[in-house]
Amino acid sequence: MIKNKNKYDHLFKNVSPASMSGIHIFGADDDYFKPQKYNDVTNLENRIWEDLFINVIPLIDQYVCREYLLGMRTLPIPKDRFPEFDAISPLIENSTNWQLVPVSGFLTEDLFFDLNANRKFPVTDIIRKSPRFEEKYSSESIHNEEGYTPEPDIFHDIQGHIPFLMNKPYADFMHEVGILGDNILKDERRLGAELVSHNLRRLQNFAWWTYEFGLIYNNLDTNHFRRKENDMEYEIYGSGIISSFDETLNVINCAKGLSEKSKILPYDIEEIVMTSFNYSEIQDRYYVVKSMEELYKSFKNNQELFWFEG
Prior knowledge:
Blueprint: E1 25-26, H1 43-63, H2 66-74, H3 85-96, E2 99-102, E3 106-107, H4 109-117, E4 120-123, H5 131-136, H6 154-161, H7 168-186, H8 193-212, E5 215-217, E6 234-236, H9 239-242, H10 245-255, E7 263-266, H11 269-273, E8 285-289, H12 292-301
Parallel strand pairs: 1-3, 2-4, 5-8, 7-8
Antiparallel strand pairs: 5-6
Helix pairs in contact: 1-10, 4-7, 7-8, 7-12
């Protein structure tokens, strides 16, 4: 995570000074690789997974986009127990050439983008509300709630992100984001450390407001894949929303005019890359793109936004 201040920070808006407080972050020099020990998963952890899944799945089925719904149908993601990484990874690799990489937790942007540039997606097997989670953060004060946690646990990684990687256009988009992040870090343009950090933060903002917390306009055709018709103007494609009951409910309430907690704004890539965020709270805004195709096209056609030269 980019923490150091530099002279370009004043260009960002919506800055939260303590947005990463307490969260453990792993970099390339840390012991971040952590294979899943599936036989060590406890009954309690399986029950937590089941409770999370059963709680959020009716909302997901009604409000999430087509790409996600189809991906969920093709993967062995159980409702009543932890998913097994070794059962899921080969299916994704066969479909879009991505692989799952088991990790210790939250990764720095440079490590995350490097893995994505090689079509590898990091996943962790720790889950919120579990003794292992509580032990990890025994000396910190962060949200550890069923409906929301800033730590990317197994429910966020697998249930939130992985179904999308069965869709080739989406998987290629994620790969392109990773490649761009890698290229920024290589600094072949010789921009220097401060501009590399600044441009990587722009890319981080883009990722956050799109594939983590993005909305698209309701495609009525998606209702053919739902059990219950979507009755709001938008569909959800942000994995951070999908894996959080509280965040999903917040989107629904704001979209239906039942709450003013968060703004729903039109997609604007120039605004998005300059808008910071807070990991530790429900989001204060969501950006709506017209379609997934527009998102992919917008990213490809606006690469210069990530090469600010001062």
